[in-house]
Amino acid sequence: MRQSRASIKINPDPIGKNKINPYLFGHFVEDIRDHMDAMLAYPLSDMDFESIDNTYRGLSGSWRPYTNGKSTRYALEPAAAHHSGHSQMIRVFSSDGGYAGVRQAIAVEQDREGYRMALYARASIEIKYVVAEIADKNSGEVLGSTRIDLDSHNWKHYESRLTVERDCELAEFRVYVPSEHEPWLDHVSTGMLWLDHVSLLPSDSQGIVRKEVMDKTMDLNAGMMRLAGNYISAYHWRQAIGPVYERPCVVNEAWGGWTNKYFGTDEFLTFCRELKVEPLICVNDGSGTPQEAAEWVEYCNGDADTPMGKLRAAHGHAEPYGVKYWEIGNEVWGPWQVGHCSAEEFAERYLRFAQAMKAADPEIVLLACGHTAMEWNKTLLDRAAEQMDYLTLHLYHGYNRFGMNEQTPKDERYKAMVSYPEWTRETLHHLREMFGSDERYAHMKVAVTEYNTMYYPNTMRKGLPNEHTLEAAVANAANLNEFIRNRDLIEIGSFSDLVNGWLGGCIRVGDYFADQFRGKSRGWSGKSLTVYGTPTYYVMQMYANRDIAYVVESHTECGSFQVNSPVSAAPKLDDLPNLDVVACQNANGDKLTIFLVNRSLENTVADVQLGGFAAEGAAQLFELTADDYEAVNSVHTPNSVVPAARELSFADGQVTCEVKAHSVYVLEITR
């Protein structure tokens, strides 16, 4: 591979204005596809028997019969009072002399403290107890078992612990009336068992979040966590508060399936508190109303003597959460969005929502749905600028905008993808001009509440892993550099998504929805519980955990590349610097941090002149690299692309380092 030379000159004095906001390195959760299934710790699905019996007559969704009785009958019946979904009825014939219940395939880890089992059940008086167990499907070995005594003919909540002796990828959970159960006297009669809810939680879960996901998210030092996405435009927050049994099962109108009722407002805000990050909530302005949004604000922020604050306190949260940041409108300009409308209509809608929400809490900060199409923004600002604090952007970058597809030579696609910051810069340039055109707009800031690489047409998952490659990480890192350069304008960023989900969820759980495995059934790899980070995860971790406060001047002399597009691209793309560099200083002025992204396809020796910041010593170099820019992490090789750190000695105020092709670096010098 060829090697070139580059010079980077740092001028640490004076430091730039405008501090870098830690919210710039935020993340984003959405109830989309398997995001919640992957994020939450429950191994069971259809826990409330909410699905219909498409596969087995009389059995809900993922549940299967577990019986050796020739006469056992199953039926879905109405749920218990105030409960959602269905109840599962199992009719047991004593003359069969067998066992009867339901089972579900799951994967489990060793848990000697015991999975926390919750059961909501009732039974005819002849049935005195049921058994719950987890077994190895292949060997039949029972890995853990517990007996639940049913002491009432009426619906009742039961709890137990189910210890598991070892990991098992191909396990089966069962709850059933055992054959050893004492038979009832009339041998032609039947006993009936009804189940309304069954759930398991591992003992190490963080609330209801998977421990490994919580640990990885903690390491991201996110700053801010956004609750939003397409689903929010048809989401009614009151359906996911209070006792979980009583929360309704609601269709996810944006993405299909069921909206996750277990991760509601209180669970999200508890998640944020445990992570020590600022929450950002997007309200439903699609099928929702200004009053509903205002009540959500009051539920989160109102004192316990307000109507919604009293409701929150009744649910066990007496103190207000103090949610400061609220977003009105998620991609309202898109025809796929519930509540899609024109800019004029949205401006009027925004004002109604803003007025109602500010009446509930005058101290909140409001974000309004912006667009890369400047006509939308101009209309919105003209009508509502005084009532908004931030304009939002969603900046997804894909090679479709270049007229490219999977048939385009991959090196040309690579160059197009790593031009991400140039596109962001172009959009921000137009916004700067707009904000500067009228004093009414002078206070406006930008929140990029969704961004990522988008390998269209791979959004339909064509079996390509692009969204999780080192290439994607290089593009996202260069884009983060552009965010930092524009820290006076951009104060909030939300990487899309946090876990699995739609595009490139930076934390990956299991082997089901990741692009390179789509189409295979869950658990095919034998590693369905593996939790790992993508290369972009490590970019986000490297950036967010640096001690930075201000940008300082830097000048880079290096080679360049161009993007050869068959269509007219918006930014000028014929002389792009190989190295994308931004330099920062911490608040104390004793640490210099240089973010250096080598976008080129050649190794480069970079001479970094420190401009008097330090004369000699040892620098820390963090490196994210691989031999191939299409390298990925997977359940098989979760650590193929991970950062490495090493020390570099330097003298005469200059650090020399080799930066490999298509790689991301962070150089730290402390004086």
From TrEMBL:
Belongs to the glycosyl hydrolase 51 family. One of its GO terms (biological process) is L-arabinose metabolic process. The keyword Magnesium does not apply. Homohexamer; trimer of dimers. It comes from Paenibacillus aurantius. It comes from the Bacteria. GO terms for molecular function: alpha-L-arabinofuranosidase activity. Residues 449-663 form the Alpha-L-arabinofuranosidase C-terminal domain. InterPro entries: Alpha-L-AF_C, ASD1_cat, GH, Glyco_hydro_b. This is non-reducing end alpha-L-arabinofuranosidase. It holds the Pfam family Alpha-L-AF_C.
